[in-house]
Amino acid sequence: MQVYNFFGDQHHFYNTTPTNFQTMVEDSTVAVTVDTCSTEEWLLNSQELVPIALTKAREVKGFQGRWKMIISKLEQVPSKLSDLSSHPCFSKNALCKEQLQAVSKTLREGIELAELCLKEKYEGKLRMQSDLDALIGKLDLNLKDCSLLTKTGVLGEVTLQFNVSGSITESDIETHCNIKELLARLQIGHLESKHKALDRLHDIMREDEKNVLAVFCRSNVVALVQLLTATSTRIREKTVSIICSLVESGGSCESWLVAEGVLPPLIRLVESGSAVSKEKAIVSLQRLSMTEDTTRAIVGHGGVRPLVELCQIGDSVSQSAAACTLKNISAVPEVRQVLDEEGVVKVMINLLNNGMLLGTKEYAAECLQNLTASNENLRRSVISEGGVRSILAYLDGPLPQESAVGALRNLVASVSEETLVSLGLLPCLVHVLKSGSLGAKQCAASVICRICSSIEMKKMLGEVGCIPLLINMLEAKANTARELAAQAIASLMILSQNRREVKKDDKSVPNLVQLLDPSPQNTAKKYAVCCLGSLSSCKKCKRLMISYGAIGYLKKLIDIEIPGAKKLRERLERGKLRSLFSRK
After folding, report:
1. Longest dimension (CA), the chain
2. pTM for the whole thing?
3. Sign of CA dihedral 425, 430, 434, 439
4. Nearest one of 515, 517, 511 to 555, comparing CA atoms
5. Measured distance CA(238)–CA(276) in Å, rounded
6. Residue 36 has pLDDT above 80, yes or no
7. Is 26 helix (H, G, I), strand (E, B) or coil?
8. Are 60 and 47 a contacting pair, CB within 8 Å?
9. Between 125-151 and 77-86, two packed helices, what is the crossing angle to 10 degrees?
10. Measured between alpha carbons, how far is 496 from 490 in angstroms, rounded to an integer?
11. ARM repeats span which residues (predicted)?
C-alpha cells in the first residue's frame, strides 16, 4: 500500500504499509477513506514510519529546539508500541486499532513537516513554529494514551467478559462492555473524540443509569474530573451533569470524586459556570458536603463565598442547594467563624424571611441552629440582625420544625424577658406545642425550661396555656420528650396557680406516676418525683398516686437514691394509713 503526501507539484510516497491499507472512493467533491486494515497491520505501519520520521527529523537544521523535543518523543514511540502489542487484549479491542491509527497519522504529519523544513517550503516562520508545537502536543497525547491503555487496565476493563449467572443476561453483558468502551474513550484521544464519547454517555445515563453505575471505576472518575476544566461550555455542562448523577447515586463514586480533586472545579463552576453548570455543580456539592472532611475541604478551597452569593442571586433550585450546603458546612464547629466572616448569618436570616422554597427556609433555620449552638459571638450576631423576630415569624407556619425552635432555644438566654415577650415568644411556644413535629415540641419544652427563671415568666407561661400541652407530652413515646416535658412542668409548678392548672388536668397524675418507672432508660423519673411531690398536699391527687401504684415505684427509686422519692413515699403511706382508719 502507498501513503501519498503532497508537497507542491511533487508526489512523495512511503511504501510502508500493506496494500489493503485503505480504499479511496472519490467523486468530483468528496473523498471517503474506508479502512480495511487489521490492528496488526496498523501496528506494522506505525513501526515502519518511526525510523523514517526520526531520520527526517534529525536532518532538519532549523527550529532546532523544537525538533530536539520532537526527536526525544519519537524515540519513545517504539517501546510504547511494543508494550501495546504485548498486551493480551491487543487484537481484541477497537481502542488499540484507533490508537495505532492516531500514532500513524501523527508520524506522517511529522514526516511532512520535516520535509517542509528541509526544503524550506513553509508559510512563514511563526506558522511553522505553531505547527511544530501542535505536533509536540500530538506526540505527547499519543504517548500518554498508549501508556494509559497498557498500564492502567483500561484495555482489560473494556475487554473483560462477565460470568453469566443469575439475572445477568447476555444483553446485559453486551451493554456493560459497550459502556466500558465508552468510558475508556473519555480517557484517550483528543478533546473532540472525548466530547463525542461524553455525548453518548450523557444520553445513556438518562436512559440506563443503573448499567453505567455497574461498570464505573476510579479511572473513569479521573477522566471526568479532568473534563470539568475543558474550555468548551457544552463539555463542562455534560460532564458536571454526569458527575451530579454519580454523586446522587451514592456509593464509592463520592469518595473517588473527592480524592481525584473534583471540589475545586465544582466550586469554580458555581462561581462562574453557565446556568446548567451552576445548578448541577451546587447539587453535587450539596451531596458531597454531608461528610465532615469534604466540608472542610470545600471551605479550604474557597467554596463559602460563591455559595453565599448563590443564596442571594440563584434560582430556586440552586438557592436551596446552596443553603443546604452551607447548612452542612455549619455543622462543623471549627469552620463557623469563616461562615460568619463571609456574611452567612445575614444571608440565612434573609432566606428565612424570603426563601423561594419551604425547604430553603428549613435549611436556613438549621444553619442558624448550628451557628448558634456554642458560639456567643454568633448568637449576638444573629440577634443583632433581627434573627429572633425572623425565626418566630417562620415558626408561625402550619407545621413548625425542630431546627427553628432549636435556634430559638440557643438564643433565648441572650435576650431579655421583656424583648422575648414583646416579640411574641409565648404564643409561638403554644403554637409549636400544639402543631409542631415531636422534635419541635421537645425544643419548645427546652425553651420553657430556659426562660422560666422569674415568677413573672412562670405566671405568663401558665396563663397562655402551656401546661395542658406539656402534660400531653408526658405520653410521648420518646424518652427525651417525656423528660423535657416533666422538667418544664416541674419548673412551672413552683407557682401555686400553675399547680392548680396541673391538678385540674385528669391526665397529669396518671402520666406522672408512669414516669416513676425505675428503669435506666427513663430519665424523667426525678422530675416526675418533683411534680408529684408538689401535688402530694392534695388528697385527691394522693389517692390517685396510690391507686396507680406510685408507692411500689417509689420503693425502687429510694434504692437508687432518686432525690425526693423517700419523702414522697412517706407522705403517700401516711395518707394511706389515714384512709384505712377513716374507713374503720
Report:
1. 136
2. 0.77
3. positive
4. 517
5. 9
6. no
7. strand
8. no
9. 30
10. 12
11. 261-303, 343-387
